[in-house]
Design a protein that fits this description.
Structural class of chain A: alpha/beta
CATH class of the largest domain in chain A: Mainly Alpha
CATH superfamily of the largest domain in chain A: Dehydroquinate synthase-like - alpha domain
Oligomer: homodimer
Distance between the termini of chain A: 42 Å
Radius of gyration of chain A: 20 Å
Helix content of chain A: 40-55%
Number of helices of chain A: 13
Number of domains of chain A: 2
Largest sheet of chain A: 7 strands, mixed
Strand order of the largest sheet of chain A: 1-2-9-6-5-3-4
Order of helices and strands of chain A: EEHEHEHEHEHEEEHHHHHHHEEH
Number of strands of chain A: 11
Chain lengths: 365, 365
């Protein structure tokens, strides 16, 4: 097992990464200063796979455990579901010293975190992510949310967990598409922060796709280290943290025009990253060779680098409605080189349109 | 005008207290670093009295202003109302740089603050409290919330405003009962923190009840200073901040058994403070004379010191369901003397019952 510390003063916490950790969750929780009640928020599928092991582990060391299950999918990350979860927290008798444990992927983690942040103005929160995307990204850093008809994650908070437990064994039950979607965020960390890590991904993509424990553990550890380093410098996204949105500006727009039905988040980000690479090249920042390296790595991980059936105009319109837009200004995160990015706010609309169009027809290789 | 600083590092802010401040709100907001859009959250009555003046002041300096109105009363401080307000924030086109301005009493401030805290994970928040209770208490310190069927303020957050503007002129349109309810919290500040302030209240209660500007401005300023001092030391109620709940343990229980229909919050707190004074005397902390001083001041402000028709057993049961109960332990804030309190967690159930019973039959004087 490896441990990554997220350094946020009084809100600091550990991420534990390793094999076969679920059976020891109870022990880990006894090391925190928390009350005796735990409400696990999960979904049917994850509960059937890992619920019993987690419950047993908690009960064994004396916790009182209740389980609340939500539907599977983004559409259940809603205020309506939140209302039901508040009700269940009341029924479970949670008080301020109690804990909410998210056992699942990003949807479960985001809404469970929102409940933990707002129930009684905040109870203890434990993240046990069961998808790669959640392990390397959404479970770390404290962004919690529910969706609103007008936008994904439109209602949310910054609320740090007390502990994150990333058990790499659970990835074996993950659908291949889900695994690949998580890898988009992993590529992102290489581009924004760490060229050496990017090279590690290039050299080890086959071992990663077949879930070799050594490579997967390293990948999760380094991803969490990078995210932790960024979040420690800017917890509430006033500046630096925005670089974690590399590939997300166009990615979110693609998700929005397809009503969050067609692309997995990571797939949108994959296309968005190539768009960002092309934009960076167009303004003279990124070498053509580094655009191609990104494209190749995205492709090697089995992720899309182009789209066909959607309207370029609609995508560009959706860009202006993103919640990262402030007083009408669209921000892009663009790379100077692999391992270093900057935030840029004054890109020409025509250029954005041109590059989006390029992504639509595909790129000659 | 006087200014009180709430010292919370990067989240520090000013409270402006004085006469005729509403007309300058626009100017005050230009001194903050905020975007051009402001959504005012208010209710019909307050809007009809002060809405136009605030809107004009904001528009004059170039802000785009929209108004969202909620119903009057605790029952509108709900997730349902929150959902409507999120919708209106979307329609108003608020982005992360935009501001939500609460124009009203505690209900408006609490729910507007909850929206500000959670819309896009937090937008700018301005408090313009129009009741005494909101000016001396709820608008300062960052507690925001909505109610749940199982408890008042059960869903909430800690979220600091960027500015609080307390215009004492607005108190002239306040119902007498509302004014008195606010004075309960003012007495509280004297008991928990400042014997000199308590004496000021004893000496000036008549001038305060007739709203003499000099006395009222001093009262609001000192109340805010005390609250600011406490909150600065313990923003998220891990320890010291709990002393602000003086009188609230029994007070909340009284509100709960009467379904929040019978007592104004301050009336519950008034009875609860006398209960706390009696408890403190019973365990040998507070002199009988200081119990009587509290009782007399509460009475001089026209607030209740006893109840008649409610069940002592039900009240004592309600105590165990309060959200301040942790792992089954009920905490009381009790005074050692006027100006100094401590948190106590191991009071005997019988003693609590006995004192509650005393409040029911009334006290021989």
């Amino acid at each position: 097992m490896e441990e990554v510390k997220v350094d946020l003063g009084v809100r600091s916490y550990q991420i534990k990464v390793g094999e076969d950790l679920l059976k020891d969750i109870g022990t880990y929780l006894t090391e925190l200063e928390i009350g005796s009640k735990v409400l696990i928020i999960t979904n049917d599928l994850v509960d059937s796979l890992y619920g019993q092991e987690v419950k047993d582990s908690l009960k064994e060391v004396g916790f009182t455990v209740e389980v609340a299950k939500i539907g599977d999918g983004e559409k259940y990350k809603s205020l309506e579901t939140a209302q039901q979860l508040y009700d269940q927290a009341v029924v479970a008798g949670l008080d301020r010293s109690s804990s909410i444990l998210a056992l699942g992927g990003g949807v479960v983690g985001d809404i469970a975190g929102f409940i933990a942040a707002t129930y009684m103005r905040g109870v203890n929160f434990i993240q046990v992510p069961t998808t790669l995307l959640a392990q390397v990204d959404s479970s770390v850093g404290g962004k919690v949310a529910v969706n609103h008809a007008a936008g994904k994650n439109l209602i949310g908070d910054f609320y740090q967990p007390q502990l994150v437990v990333a058990d790499i064994n659970v990835l074996s039950t993950l659908e291949e598409k889900e695994l690949k979607a998580g890898l988009a965020e992993v590529i992102k960390y290489g581009v924004i922060w760490d060229e050496e890590f990017f090279t590690f991904l290039e050299d080890n993509y086959k071992e990663i796709l077949t879930l070799e424990p050594q490579q997967v553990q390293h990948l999760i550890k380094v991803s969490c280290q990078i995210k932790a380093a960024v979040v420690a410098q800017d917890e509430t996204e006033r500046g630096l943290r925005a670089i974690l949105n590399y590939g997300h500006t166009l990615g979110h727009a693609l998700e929005a025009v397809t009503d969050y039905q067609y692309y997995r988040h990571g797939e949108g980000v994959a296309i968005g990253m190539l768009g960002a690479a092309k934009l960076a090249h167009q303004i003279g920042w990124l070498d053509k060779a580094d655009v191609i390296r990104q494209q190749r790595l995205i492709e090697n991980f089995g992720l899309p680098t182009s789209f066909s059936q959607w309207s370029v105009d609609e995508i560009c319109q959706a860009l202006t409605k993103d919640k990262k837009v402030e007083d009408g200004v669209i921000r892009f995160i663009l790379a100077k080189e692999i391992g270093e990015v900057e935030i840029i706010a004054d890109l020409e609309e025509n250029l954005i349109k041109e590059v989006t169009q390029e992504l639509k027809v595909g790129d000659e290789k």
